[in-house]
């Protein structure tokens, strides 16, 4: 009775290690997009609305009716 339990626990441990290794290599591969967090600041627009930071450089989004400078 102890042997099947030991085998089951061993199989689960090996599966957990394999899953962790796959997740680690996927997250650290050069092809995976890198996440960047932008601050939660807001810019007030002339029409009274507000826009936040966005994009890979965390620049402010354009105000409604404003052309992008990028």
Kindly describe this structure:
- It is a single chain.
- This protein folds into two domains: 1-32; 35-63, no CATH class.
- 37% of the residues lie in helices and 14% in strands.
- It has one helix at 2-27; strands at residues 42-44, 50-54, 59-60.
- β2 and β3 (59-60) form a beta hairpin.
- The N and C termini lie far apart (68 Å).
Draw up the topology in text:
Blueprint: H1 2-27, E1 42-44, E2 50-54, E3 59-60
Antiparallel strand pairs: 1-2, 2-3
Tell me the count of domains: 2
Percent helix, as a range, is 25-40%
Largest sheet: 3 strands, antiparallel
What does the overall shape look like? rod-shaped
> Which oligomeric state applies?
single chain
How much of the sequence lies in strands comes to 5-15%
Biggest sheet strand line-up: 1-2-3
One letter per element, helices H and strands E, the order comes to: HEEE
Average pLDDT works out at 85
Number of helices: 1
Unreliable stretches covering 5 or more consecutive residues: none
Number of strands: 3
Class by alpha and beta content: alpha+beta
């Amino acid at each position: 009775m102890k042997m099947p339990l030991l085998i089951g626990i061993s199989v689960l441990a090996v599966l957990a290690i394999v899953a962790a290794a796959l997740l680690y290599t996927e997250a650290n591969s050069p092809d995976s997009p890198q996440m960047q967090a932008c601050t939660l600041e807001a810019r007030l627009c002339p029409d009274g609305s507000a826009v936040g930071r966005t994009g890979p450089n965390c620049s402010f989004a354009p105000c409604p009716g404003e052309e992008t400078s990028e």
